[in-house]
Amino acid sequence: MKRRRNETDRQLAERAMTLFNEFRNAYAGEWRRQEHCERMYRGEHWYDVPVTDPNEPRPVTPILQSTIENITADLMEQVPEAVITPENATDAYIARVVEAVVRRNHDAASYPVEYRKLIHDLLVGGYCVQEVGYDGTLNAGLGGAYLRRVDIRNILIDPMVTDLQEGRAVFKLALRSKEWIEAHYPDTAALIDEHPVDAAELMTDEILSPDPKEARLLLEYWWREYDAKSETHRVHMAILCGGTVLEDSRDVKPEGYFDHGRYPFVLTTLYPRKGSALGFGIIDLFGTQQRYADKLDQLVLKNALLASRNKLLVTDASGFDPDDLRDWSKDVHTGDSLNGVTWFATPPLPNYLLSYIRAIREDIKEESGANESSRGTVSSGVTAARAIEALQEMSTKRARMATEQMHEAFRQAVRMEIETEREFNCFLRPVTITVDGQPKSVLFDSAMMQRTAPGNVELPIEFAISIKAVKRNRFASDAQNELMLKLLSMGAVDREQAIELMVFEGKEQVLKHIRDVQAAEEPLFGQSRKTKRFGGNV
Predict the structure, then answer these.
(1) How does DSSP classify residue 213?
(2) Taking a C-beta distance cutoff of 8 angstroms, is the pair 3, 188 a contact?
(3) What does the pLDDT average to over 2-17?
(4) pLDDT at position 462, please?
(5) Distance between CA 151 and CA 121 in Å, rounded?
(6) Residue 271 bridge partners (DSSP)
(7) How far is the C-alpha of 329 from the C-alpha of 88, rounded, in Å?
(8) Which conformational region is residue 402 in: left (phi greater than 0), alpha (psi within -120 to 50 degrees), or beta?
(9) What pLDDT, on the 0 to 100 scale, is given for residue 523?
(10) Is 504 helix (H, G, I), strand (E, B) or coil?
(11) What's the CA gap between 197 and 201, in Å, rounded?
(12) Do 256 and 236 meet the contact criterion of CB atoms below 8 Å apart?
């Protein structure tokens, strides 16, 4: 749609830029904190310490980095999957189709990759943000909803609220080249003023620095309006660049971008902050201990360097030439008296200091969660699934807490994703579900999710289905399978029941094969089918 500068756009741009400048000023300290946390994660926290001696050692023991990576490994074992269950038997088919649609969306978006980035933001930055939207170009042009991560450095939430959904606005930032703007907005690019916001100041990476003459800051401005008559909210979106409105969702959907009236973002915090919607991460809690541990290592290294090069004290009364003594190639040196020549050795550090260094390092590991079991270095020869599970449960409490938070956020995001599919899907999309162990292609139509109450009131999706975020731990699955094998050996269950209760890939195909074999061996008029076919006993 060709846009022209008008009074409505001018007022929208003025209101957006006023809010953006307010948010940006409030986030100045938060951006410094994020940069500090990233440097601590990379082991570059000496960058914040002024250099007093260019020759002094600056050691780094990556305790926190190891902790974060270990917890990340635990969380990646728990990548959530959406499980859709019907509220009643009549909605069973719909639940299976919707579940297949959601899984296809996540496969297309490579959600485990997005989940890995979300975990990094959560553990290092203290919070992570997921975005739910609809892309009409997905699935060969049929469209589809997506669930993806938003870099916490590129999103601004109202600093006055503790709940993202209660904020006056949400800003997403993105750097784009001048050519990109002209290609995507050819009718509006000429209206863009000289960009009033320094893009390099806001978005520059510590290593990569884009050309400020070519970089343009693209603002995605989300805001909500309250309708007092209906007591509901309407959410709108506009894209701005250089103080110019490039897109306004009200041109197409004046009643609101989404029917649900919420911002399409789900925020998860690791350790909540008082009076803020944001959170603190592991580095905020244990960064000071890491720096003290590295400072103690610096003292030990400096002492070792000094001790490795003893000093020679020479007085004028000794009669020796210091430069002559410095020449180690000579066998004979001439002087008046050895009483004026003394070796000065650097005294070693006390033993209790070395013990304290080890103690503080172990304390960081234990308190932050990087203990032996969580790192997978249990040396007790434990192999039973139940024992492994017990050790994992005891050693990964911090990871389990983060997993519960991420799974709840995932469940909220999937609910919003299904609502988005129901609202925006226009075409019949083929998806595959499993019926009796065989894949079956069916068509997904958003109309199947429409539910209305008396008075033509549209009901939320939870009235038909329930959404759960489930991912079995690998060790819990092993324990479940071991239990089923024991029950099978005891005769408490038959093989079909045991396989039905086990957890492994391809279970549906195995069950179908067992049922087919049982059906082929059923008696037919006193004979098995196999006997009748071959005309004799087998």
Answers:
(1) T
(2) yes
(3) 81
(4) 65
(5) 8
(6) 280
(7) 95
(8) alpha
(9) 58
(10) coil
(11) 8
(12) yes
Both structure tokens of 468: 């759960």
* H or E element at residue 401: helix 397-424
Distance separating alpha carbons of residues 298 and 310, to the nearest angstrom: 19
60: left (phi over 0), alpha (psi -120 to 50) or beta: beta
Are the C-beta atoms of 111 and 149 separated by less than 8 Å? no
- Strand-pairing partners, residue 240, are 219, 245
- DSSP output for 408-474: HHHHHHHHHHHHHHHHH--S-EEEEEEETTEEEEEEE-GGGG--EETTTEEPPGGGTEEEEEE---H
Tell me: pLDDT of 117 over 60: yes
On average, the pLDDT of the chain sits at 79
Long-range (24+ apart) CB contacts under 8 A made by 107-111 are 108/138, 108/139, 108/144, 108/146, 109/146, 109/147, 109/148, 111/79, 111/147
pLDDT tens by residue, 153-162? 999 999 999 9
User: 391 with 378: CB under 8 angstroms?
Assistant: yes
pLDDT at 6 over 50: yes
46: Cα separation from own chain's centroid: 26
CA dihedral sign, ordered 373, 379, 383, 384: negative
Non-local CB neighbours of 209 within 8 Å, separated by 6+ positions: 200
| Res 133 pLDDT > 80 | yes
pLDDT number for residue 191: 66
Predicted pLDDT at 534: 35
Taking residue 373's Cβ as centre, other Cβ atoms within 10 Å add up to: 17
Residue burial 4-34, b: 16+ Cβ < 10 Å; e: rest: eeeeebeebbeebbebbebbbeebeebeebb
Q: What pLDDT, on a 0 to 100 scale, did the predictor assign at position 470?
A: 66
pLDDT per residue as tens digits for the range 318-370: 878 888 777 878 888 888 788 777 777 777 777 777 777 777 777 776 765 55
Where b means 16+ CB within 10 Å and e means fewer, 127-144 reads bbbbbbbbeeebbeeebb
Q: Which long-range contacts (CB under 8 A, 24 or more apart) does 491-496 make?
A: none
Residue 217: beta bridge partners?
175
- pLDDT of amino acid 235: 94
Instruction: Give per-residue pLDDT as tens, 239-271.
Output: 998 888 999 999 999 999 998 899 999 999 999
Tokens of 450: 């429409």
Task: Decide if 217 contacts 199 (C-beta within 8 A).
Answer: yes
